[in-house]
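INFO  loader      accepted 1 record
INFO  loader      residues=613
INFO  predictor   begin
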Amino acid sequence: MKSIITLIVTFFLNLTLSWAADINATLIDANSTVYQTLLHTLSKDTNKTAEINLEKSLLEILLQPQKTMIRDLNLTQAKNVTTYRQLFQIYLDDALKLDTLRSALSQDNHKIETIENEIADLDNHSPQLFSMELQDAFYHKKSESLHQQIMAYTKQMQQIKSILLKSLSSIDFQTLNIDTTLKKETQLLKTLQERINRYEIVKERLSLVSDRDKISSIDKQIEDTKTLYQNIIKNNIVTKFMQFSFALQKKDEIAFSIAKEINKKLTLLGLHNIDTDIIPLFQSMENKYLGTLKTITGASEQEFKEMVAQGWNFINQPIIEINKTPISIFKLILSLLVFIMGFVLGALYKRKINNLTTRKRPLTATTRTLLANMGYYIIILIAFFIALKALGITLSSLALIAGALSVGIGFGLQNIVSNFVSGLILMFERSIKIGDYVQIDDQTRGYITDIRMRSTTITTNENIDIIVPNQSFIEHNVVNWTMKDNIRRFSIPFGVKYGTKPEQVIEIIETAVANSELQDDLYNSIERRTRVIMTGMGDSSVNFELFIWVKGDKLRKPKRTASEFYILIYNALYENNIEIPFPQMDLHIRSIDASLPIETLNNTTNSNVKDKH
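INFO  predictor   done
INFO  writer      dumping tokens
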């Protein structure tokens, strides 16, 4: 019988050397009898090569039984809080074991793919072909064993899950001092973390002096402390689960937040499959004891809180630094909102001042504008400092920036600064005010309608707004027609022909002004009164000048006002038959050259020019 088996194995072995693909599948599906026969055949081979030894080692490994080490619970319900706690500890250990098994299975699958690609590239008579096929079979057997273990642990976790769901309502959690236990575990975790940090510092110091013995000792202490740290985390997770279960028993929705805390701590253990192993347990317990609707609502609310927390953390992460002060997106947004709010409040304040004073008129236009503008800029300045405070930048932090900008201000921004200071001077000095009628040059004349920090607005009689830098009012001559009052003297020059009595002219013009409708726009006092004076005797006329003191709106329309008085003078002289002379030139001919043509003589004779124009 043994000889027949040997022949069969020999046949398979020869077949391996010829058709590798078929033998590969056969080796994977073979049982221990086939592996034992192949090992017996190889043992008789006197050629002890390295490849033969490798094949024998692989066959011996394949002959070893694959055992799934898992606890037998034999429970249908947890009897007390201790059993309940132990069940979740087993559940957590199984989840960690499953995580390790899944990782190993994934690695073996990658190995199988790699080695089968290598086998496909080998020649059918390659001496390495059989050993690689045995190794491929080993990986397949190992993967099958891992898969069986995963199924076994998954089944046990489902059993524990069922027991926990059934037992929760009957467990008395009052015997546990959960809050005290959590505080002790948290403090112990903090202590262990500090101990690990101290060991790391000592290790760095020892590495500088290359003391290998002590470094090895420190490494051992670090490893032991980290293991203890992991165990405390596991205990803390179990305690939190008891807190979670107690909250579910009381139907307290705080259980949702506790479950999220447990999930965060599970990541510290390196658990990657929380969504498939842990979260379903929590969701099943929440559905049963809080109801599906509350579970969905609570989970959505918790997820929303987490999203808000993540967003909050994101916008609070520093993106830049200014003078070693970290600046985050939140700080930038907050400072921008504060600055915008300052502009809005400043604009509302300015509008409020203008509206109040417009209705009640307790203030002059100049005072109103001064209060509105100064308040506006003060609000903007306060908002600027608050925005800096929101960014975390103090005034002392700006010293370096101010020093760097001083050169730029001294050169590039000197006009802006000069206009700003000039605006402050104009507002407080009040040499020009809102409503004043000013003249800067022959072309620029009009009302002051606004005085700002950088510029002043002049509205001309043509309703054209001219923006004039404040510096121009400080550095150049400015004619303010209405600085102290709304009274100004106008001079209206005119002339009459020779032969007219000056007294008669003066009386006629003063009487005409006194009896005209323009008298209401004139100002007369002892010092300021209407008068006509003779200013000289010209080439063609006796020259006079009318002095009148104009008040009110007429003052702001000088050309129109002068035109009205010119018309009044012209009509008064015309009515009294007083001739207004015009320039003329008389040509006297003393001798005539007889040799000149008649046409030339006629042209010369007719050249008496009576008007230069």
